[in-house]
Amino acid sequence: MPSLFDDFRMAEGYVAARPPVHPRVIERLPIKAPVGLAIDLGCGAGLSTAALAPLARCRVGIDPVEAMVKFASRRVPEASFAVAAGEALPFSSAHVDLISAAGSLNYVDLDRFFREARRVLRPNGVIVIYDFSPGCAFRNDDSLEIWFDTFSRRYPWPAFNGRLLNPYIIAKLDSGFRLMSHENFAIPLLLTRQAYIDYMLTETNVAQAIQNGASHAEIEAWCAQTLEPVFNGRARDVVFKGYFACLG
Question: What pTM was estimated for this model as a whole?
Fold first, then answer.
């Protein structure tokens, strides 16, 4: 089965419809002065790379999926992008100031990645690891959680074949780095029903359903119909929960 991410519709959806969670995470980091060069590991379609603008004068996004890298190059022309993996970083030794990994270290060989990170980072270089779950809850009631449970049962999620990470697990890894700071967060973003539908259509369970023969139009119609009473004609704060961890 081909990768769910090696698909132009998925990449285009990421560019157009993913909520702006990444900038809200970046603004919480205890890194204030811009650095010279930042690598965005697992950059996807460039959302996480664009969010690094306040932290780095030069940004390079890398991802093993060519479709994502092509879209990232179009979306963030002021950054550079390359098809590459975290286990073999295409950078000179002691050349990088910051490595950011948004939901990507779960899928790499961590021993090889940390060895590469120790090689390419300058003295006092920093690794920022962060991730967040799908937005599936309102702040004030459980109606979106109930809908999301039904959505997940109707369109099952692909099996998770990565490694569970959180600040406490990261702190115990034999990485050669020290956990300098971390935070568990809950970020609310105001979304209309249509914005939420467009976002849900970029999720991997939808990509898998389409791969298995479902119609994109049918999934969109079902989401529109079932979300109408949930949003009830108004924008709602959707909560995104996650964490960040800074290593140095």
Answer: 0.92
